[in-house]
Amino acid sequence: MKRSTCGRALGAAAVSIVSVLTMSFTGVAAQADPAPAPTEQALAELIAAGRKAAPVAGGSGSACTSGSGAGSGNGSGNCYGGSGSSSGSSGGFASDTVGYGPPKTSWVEAFGYGLTNPDVAPPGANDWKCKPTAEHPRPVVLVHGTWMNAYNGFAYMGQPIKDAGFCTFTFNYGRANLVEGGGLGSVLPGVMGTGYIQDSAKQLATFVDRVLAATGADEVDIVAHSQGGSMANWYTKFEGGAAKVRNLITYGATHHGTSLDGIGALGRAINNLGIDVLGFVEIFVGHAGIQQTIGSDFVDKLNANGDTVSGVDYTIVGTRYDEVTNPYELTFLRAGLGATVQNITLQDGCEQDLSDHLMMMYSPRALSIALRTLDPAGHPQLECAPNPWLIGGGGR
Fold it and tell me: What pairing do the DSSP bridges indicate for beta strands 313-318 and 245-251?
């Protein structure tokens, strides 16, 4: 009894600490309409102004593999991101899930469970004996976001997608510890998606190949959240994924980076003056966090030849209350040759959905968007239900 009581107390303490950290990092989503966000052009001008100054001599950014933190992060040497990041070495790995967690309708509850059970799969995922049908010929790969894991990313959506007739698979990627540049959050067992995004894209490529081999399918559909979306986008462009992905469905993805409520944009401008502000911040948020700020080499290369690749159909979902990927319109894509893009604002036609960056993965409307994209004939209608901030899942 004593051990059980201690375990419950430890778990409760962990959830409380992470809730405070999360709210500190993401802010509190307002119940009213959010304040007008700065335009992408305004942010670009701020960043460009910083780039006019010459970098400090000797700061090459090459310290990424040494962990010395001495570089300015301009992208020469061994820095993947060129993102003002120079703290910690590169590293990290992906891993399979072990066992299953229960379904959840609340992100806070799912996040807490994922901390104490970091390797479980969300319900409905990773039945490796599942074979696609003629009605649903493509398996679905679920890709979590930064500081999350396979379970708490899809504890709400996993089972309904499986129940709709799809073979559904997921994994944990970007498992980088503090020494490997995962940031302070990586000391918690359930915090993943913190390593270099290019490394994570290679991990995704390996996992998709396993799914295709196991199911006998030629292509997959991907449902991804936050970093998972931009990482999957990188996979389609630079790791051979274009020929293996039919639908890319993303929620709050950092396709064009984020200002992090302006902090990232200001930090980028200061970094371009030669003062390694973002390198310091990276100690806290990890390599992947810094790579997702506006103006990083990762974001610039991701979109250098256009937002899309031929042959992929994109469904891009953003929320007006997104405090992480902001301005939230930065998540939207422009269709290039041979691609289709549907950009959806979650609140259009459903103002009572107050989902922010995290709650959108627990939104009934967000789930219905995924199901309609995966199976338009079987799920033609979008659901509209209240989705409270912090609770999610329609408040259930």
Answer: parallel
